[in-house]
Amino acid sequence: MSTKFHSVWQDAVTAFKAADMLPPLKRLDLAIWRLSNLTAKDKDLTTVPPTPSDGDCYIVPSGAGTVWSGHTNKIAYFDSDTTAWTLYTPEEGWTCYVQDEDREYIYTGAAWVRKVSYVVSAFYPGILDDAAKVMSHIAVHPFQFAIAFAGSYAKVATGASASTVFSIQKNSSEIGTCTFAPAGSSGTFAMAAANDVAAGDVIDIVGPNPADPVFANVAISLKGLR
C-alpha cells in the first residue's frame, strides 16, 4: 500500500476510495475508544432505545427484547453509519461506568457487580448493655448491601451463653440481623434481599434486650458496594 496519504490509496491489486474506507475505520475507532473507556448509559433497560445516538452503549439486562434478546450482560453499541447494534461479549475484569447510576461496575465472568466497596465497622468493648447501640453510621455515599450482607464479618472475644441476635437497621427500621450461636465466636448475617442505602441514611446495629451476661468485646464490619 502507498506510503502517501491521498484521497485514494492503491496497492498492486485493489484501489480503495477514502469514502469506502472511512466508515469501517470510524467504527473501529469508536469501538476501541468505547471499550477502553467503557461507559454505558444504563444497565437495566429492557426495551431497546428507539432513537439512539451514534456510539451509545448499554449493558444488556436479563429479559431485554428484540435485537437485544438473548444477549444478557453483553455490551450493546450503536453505530449510526449502519443504524445497527453491535453486541460485544465482555471478558472477566472489564469495568464499565453506568451513567444513570453514577456507579462503576466490574464483570466477574458471570455478572456485572459494583466495583467499589463501602465498609462500616464497629467495636463494642466489654460486656454488652441491654439494647446497646453498637454502631450508628451516617452514609456519605449511596451504596448497596448485598443479600445476607455478603462479604461482612462479625467476631466476638467471649461467646454468649445463649443465642444473641443483633438488629441491623436503616433509619430505625430493621433490614437484617447478625446472630451469634451459644459460645460461638463468629456471627451469621441474614437479609432476604439486597438493600440500597442513600447518602444521609443512618445505619444502626442494636444489641439484644436483655443482653447476654457474658457476651463481650464484639466487632462487626458491614460491607456494601457503591
Tell me about this structure.
- By secondary structure, this protein is mostly beta strands.
- It has two domains: 15-114, no CATH class; 117-225, Jelly Rolls (Sandwich), CATH 2.60.120.
- Helices cover 8% and strands 42% of the residues.
- It is built from one helix and 19 strands.
- It has one helix spanning 18-36; strands at 8-10, 15-17, 39-40, 57-59, 75-79, 84-88, 95-98, 103-107, 112-114, 117-127, 133-138, 143-145, 153-158, 164-170, 173-180, 188-190, 195-197, 202-206, 216-225.
- The strands form six sheets. The protein has a five-stranded antiparallel beta sheet, with no helix packed on it.
- The radius of gyration is 26 Å and the shape is elongated.
- The two termini are 50 Å apart.
- Mean pLDDT is 87; it is low at 1-13.
